[in-house]
Design goal:
Elements: E1 19-22, E2 25-29, E3 42-46, E4 50-54, H1 61-70, E5 75-80, H2 92-99, E6 103-105, E7 131-132, E8 138-141, E9 144-150, E10 159-163, E11 168-172, H3 190-201, E12 207-210, H4 219-242, H5 248-255, H6 264-280, E13 284-286, E14 296-298
Parallel strand pairs: 4-5, 5-6, 6-7, 11-12
Antiparallel strand pairs: 1-2, 2-3, 3-4, 8-9, 9-10, 10-11, 13-14
Helix pairs in contact: 3-4, 5-6
Bound molecules: zinc ion.
Zinc ion binds near residues 120, 154 and 173.
């Protein structure tokens, strides 16, 4: 029986307008809709007067201009980055130039190489944070304090930011309401992703604001559904391997019924992520290195 994920896709906003969405929180959505970004990147502004910006977004000058127009008379003091994908961090550079605010992030893009075929929006290889943020670090501004939570999986440098004393968590691409997250090796890591879901289950945040799509108001139900969904996917992959289906494209064919063609490659990367994890756990073996076009079978040991 398929796991039901309580997806949230009702999303009201206007492109190019910085709009209040909760006390202390405003959001402006960039016009970069895609099968991986939903309606586009949601850039958040926290506070009033002296403010923090989370995920300035893609390299779209109109987006940065609209953000700054919405912040007329206010001052950006911090630029926070959840992770280095091209729909999240590139606008940090122009925003920093225009405001003088330092950037905060876990580190530069890691895993793979510049020029690797891009899944999702691809890596932003140019971003280097001014301030390196580690798990548990606190970032304080005017009227707000964030706690950084390292949540590797979607990327190795992914951070969520909890707004202290509010029950609010900015969940980036780690937990989204509209979709599951893309986990694509080598930077994406299924075991790390599952551990990062567990890490958030151990917290008591009340509402998540992801970078794409609407807020998640029952985060625990979402976390449990995502964990169950991946466990179900893993079981499906093992069933395929038991049936002698050992190549990723054939596994995708079997498991992803009714998949949009645009998402086929991402599905293959996700199956690959599961297989890399299963090989690391000794449950599955591959002929040679566990690559995207490799051949896999149940381990005979
Ligand atoms: Zn991403």
């Amino acid at each position: 029986m398929a796991i039901e994920i309580p997806f949230r896709r009702e999303f009201s906003f206007e492109y190019g307008r910085l709009e209040p969405v909760a006390p202390m929180i405003r959001r402006i959505v960039a016009r970069n809709p895609s099968p991986f970004t939903f309606k586009g990147t949601g850039t958040y502004v926290i506070g009033r007067g002296d403010v923090a910006v989370i995920d300035p977004g893609p390299d779209l000058p109109e987006h940065v201009e609209a953000l700054l127009a919405g912040l007329k008379g206010e001052r950006v003091t911090h630029i926070l980055i959840t992770h280095t994908h091209r729909d999240h961090s590139p606008a940090a550079q122009p925003l920093k130039m225009m405001t003088g605010a330092p950037t905060y992030g876990f580190g530069p893009h890691a895993g793979g190489n510049r020029g690797d075929p891009a899944v999702e929006e691809g890596g932003d290889w140019d971003f280097v944070p001014d301030v390196v943020v580690r798990d548990g670090d606190r970032i304080a501004g005017h009227g707000w304090v964030f706690e950084a939570i390292h949540t590797p999986g979607h990327t190795s440098n992914h951070l969520c930011f909890a707004l202290s004393g509010s029950g609010v968590l900015f969940s980036g691409d780690h937990v989204m309401g509209w979709s599951t997250s893309v986990i694509a090796p080598p930077d994406g890591d299924m075991a790390a992703y599952m551990a990062s879901l567990d890490k958030l289950l151990g917290r008591s945040d009340q509402i998540y604001w992801p970078t794409h799509g609407p807020a998640i108001t029952e985060p625990e139900a979402h976390l449990r559904a995502f964990i169950a969904h991946r466990q179900e996917r893993e079981a499906g992959i093992l069933d395929c391997l038991h049936a002698g289906i050992g190549r990723i494209d054939a596994i995708v064919e079997r498991l992803y019924i009714g998949l949009q063609p645009a998402l086929r490659r991402a599905a293959g990367r996700s199956v690959h992520a599961h297989l890399v994890d299963l090989v690391a756990r000794g449950i599955v073996e591959s002929e040679g290195r566990p690559t995207l076009d490799g051949s896999y079978r149940i381990s005979r040991l």
